[in-house]
Amino acid sequence: VIVSRFAPAPTGHLHIGHVVNALHVWTMTRARGGTILLRIEDHDRQRSRPEFAASILDDLAWLGFDADAPPVRQSDRVAIYEDALRRLRSGGLVYACSCSRSEIAAEGAASDTELRYPGTCAARGLPEHAGYGLRVRLEATVERFVDLRHGPIEQTPSEQCGDLLVRDRYGQWTYQFAAAVDDLVQRVTLVIRGDDLLPSTGRQIQLARLLGRTTPPEFFHHALVMKTPTQKVSKSDNDTGVRELRAKGWKPEDVIDYAKSLIVGR
Ligand code: GLU
């Protein structure tokens, strides 16, 4: 049985990029007779707001994107993340880390595209306490998967990002950890999301394996919606928000047609 999910972060209103993602999720999953879950990814307490979550859910319903279960919120799932953390810890895979982002940047160990954690605290045996982050020791393995659009992909998370942050210095669960745990616990078998998250896939596959997942989900990474050939649609744009389009008198089908026009030919 196919289980997919739509997993917006409530850090802004629903915009046309979300609608394109939702179209992919609903079309592909329904075509395979699958189930769709809604997950509000409010792991970032600084940037997430309940009113954005409410407006996202309202716009989705207005557009006719119906999920098969009530939405879940990551902020309600602390016990689930604690439990996953315990399992990693009992395998000796977790360590406390006192490094700030700027300290990591100053180590100069950045790989070509992103900041790689060089393992500064890996053998320090710091106590776990408030003010320290928690990291999971990654294996130096190559993660291989077949993306349903891109074909075979190889990624080496230990070289891309180094030991993964699970909980940050402010006690917040990270996106990588929360998403991998949720996809495991919610038995998600099909992940459909934008190309911007392609580099995250190998590390989420590995994290899930360390937590005991034997079969990773299938992945489909679609092209991002561009406003112009070089400019991504962003949450701060005020001309691509479903709110704004609704206020201008657009009907749900107009918004859907607009989103479809952005997919055609890609
Ligand atoms: N919450 C992520 C976002 O809004 C999506 C996560 C995912 O699909 O894995 O970009």
Key features of this structure:
single chain, 266 residues, alpha/beta, three-stranded parallel β-sheet, three-stranded antiparallel β-sheet, 12 strands, binds glutamic acid
Q: List the bound ligands.
A: glutamic acid
What's the arrangement of strands in the largest beta sheet? 1-2-3
**Strand count, sense and closure of the main sheet?**
3 strands, parallel
Radius of gyration (CA) equals 19 Å
Q: What is the number of helices?
A: 9
| Low-pLDDT segments | none
Looking at the structure, what is the overall shape? globular
Mean pLDDT: 94
Q: Helix/strand-derived class? A: alpha/beta
Element order, helices and strands?
EHEHEHEHEEEHEHEHEEEHH
Q: Gap between N and C termini, in Å? A: 28 Å
Describe the structure.
It is a single chain. The chain contains 9 helices and 12 strands. The protein is α/β, with parallel strands linked by helices and 266 residues long. It has helices spanning 16-31, 50-63, 78-90, 101-106, 157-160, 175-185, 201-210, 242-247, 252-263; strands spanning 3-6, 35-40, 72-73, 94-97, 133-136, 143-147, 151-155, 164-167, 190-194, 218-222, 226-228, 231-232. It has a 3-stranded parallel sheet with strand order 1-2-3. A 3-stranded antiparallel sheet has the order 4-5-8. The chain has a two-stranded antiparallel ribbon with strand order 6-7. The structure holds glutamic acid. The site of glutamic acid (GLU) has 7 residues, from loops.
